[in-house]
Amino acid sequence: MAPRVPAAQVKAYERQRYELQQTRASAAKSAGVTQEWARLHDRKLAAADANLKPVALPMVRERVTPRTAHQGHSNSSSALRLAAPVNFDALNPKAKKALDDFEYFRLRYFGRRSMPWAIDAMTRLDELMRSPEREYVVINVAPGVGKSTLLHDFAVWETVKQRWIRGLWGSATAQLAGIATKRLRSTLGAAYTVKAKLKDATHGYGVDAEATLVADYGRFRPVDGGTWRTDMFVVEQFDEENYDEKEPTWGAFGENSEEIGWRANLIVWDDLVTKSLINGTLDAIDRHREWFDDVAEERLEPGGLFALVGQRLGANDTYRYCLDKLITDELDFEGDDIQHAAPMYHHIVYKAHDEELCGGHTIASNNKKALEPWKPDGTGGCLIDPYRISWKKCLMTMRDETKWETVYQQGDSSAQDVLVQKIWIEGGLDNRTGEIFNGCWDEQRDWCEIPLGENGEPNKDLVTYMVVDPSPSKWWGCIWMAYDPHSLRRYVLDVHRAKMQAGEFLDVINGQPVGLAHQWVTRAREKGYPIRTMVVEANSAERFLLQYEHVRRWSSKFGVDIISHATHQNKADPKFGVQTIGGIWRQGLVRLPGLARPVVKPLVQEVTTYPQGATDDLVMAFWFGEYNLRTITTRTVAPPARRAVPSWLRRDGWAA
Questions:
Q1: Which of 86, 225, 320, 501 could form a disulfide with 218 if both were Cys (CB 3.0 to 4.6 A apart)?
Q2: Concatenated DSSP letters for 500-564?
Q3: Residues 399, 287 share a domain
């Protein structure tokens, strides 16, 4: 007598054979049984249920009409596999409703009850899917609330509504993305209704599903041998639709994929950002961002949706990088054009805990309001999901303030971990401490605008200077500033942060000075407030500036004294180091042009994320100025005496 096959293996075989629609040989191999046993078992099941036929039986392509649409829509696998794609007019009323109602779609086919935040997120995504333009969105949500499952359900919903869709699922690695597309494929081919997990059913989060997708909408697995791999698959189309099989319905890709071979209407990057990435070197972060700009974003078709989804991990993560991207009418911010900048990415964010709605908690709270989930209209509780992220879980996580503020509250970083808090710049009431801050914005001052004195007249006591943190291969940070010795205010006039060569900062072309430094010096002279001092990091000053004759001649002609600042001697000094500049921001002594926010945004971004930010060039430059402020304000630079100028110097355009 043949050995008895354990019940677990029998169940595994039946699932692979009938639910996942594998061939007999493949199902037998997966379950660890012989093909002979599998053949006899299939025959036994067929005898017990004449309607049960495995996937190996020939499938016919049939036309489904309103008259025949509901014939055979039982739970038998034969009917499910033989049903061709069903046209909209032939759908039953509940199937039609599910195409318009995502919440009902999830409940009917997956047995999942949706939290208010999930419905809100998918409603907003569906609106973006209907846009005729390319739309980009960042979705940040606390971990553990079913984000990936929600994205999976949304991708299935869109595929059912639009079988012609081309989707791309991405993750940090192709292997992780492949797990997601395998799940998509299994869902679209499932022949049995989903049963709720006991724990979910007990807490009211899940119920048994009412129907299957293939029962209501027809089969999705092609009958003509189309691609049906775990990492790439094609769904069956309606006969009257033209479908290019070279472009799979869904494909899985990672940042480590050699290339992304096609464009898509719906692109989902789930958990692309990792700790190893944001803790990597600046070069590694730059390479990642270059890949993201040139490869990941470029795969989107017109009218498509690009979604970058996950929880925040730090101030310099890819989510922040995307949220800082702007769409502008001009490549450079000039004059009024800076007002035309708009964010490239929409931002959908859900915190674990909404402090503004919180009415107080205890670990064993019986407050019904506190046990209700958060709602977008503010009528619910303060927790996004009281079951998955309870108040006790929140208290446990709050012990690590940085983790709580970033990963769970979706902030750039903890307020205690950064050089300058955002509330100091924006102004207002700090709910944590009860303090009120004036902020740092001069709302009516524009880019490069010299502030007037308190009496409304030009302030002749202002001292203007520039601070520079150069780099041979990375970003330069340059700030043009003005200091009022009476009010102690530091006015930011212009900010420049970019990758550039030394010649782009200051050079001579055809005998004429050119570059950013000369532009600022010329502009300052025209406004009647000449720049007398430029502070530059010591090593860079010798390497990029002072070694050149044309720089020394320019400095002498225009009366600009170049001060070399030794960064590493005092950077960490508690009395003179970088941390000392936080106090003047807190007091509102740093003044920013409110009408030129995009111009100064890089500076604001760096000071509010230092030392966790991706770059600190502008922070260092600002500190150079503060450290040398006494020297800047007390040093008198007399204009050079006029004397006979050699003819060769006059010809070069250097004569005053």
A1: 86
A2: --HHHHSEEETTEEESHHHHHHHHHHHTT----EEEEEHHHIIIIIITSHHHHHHHHHHT-EEEE
A3: no
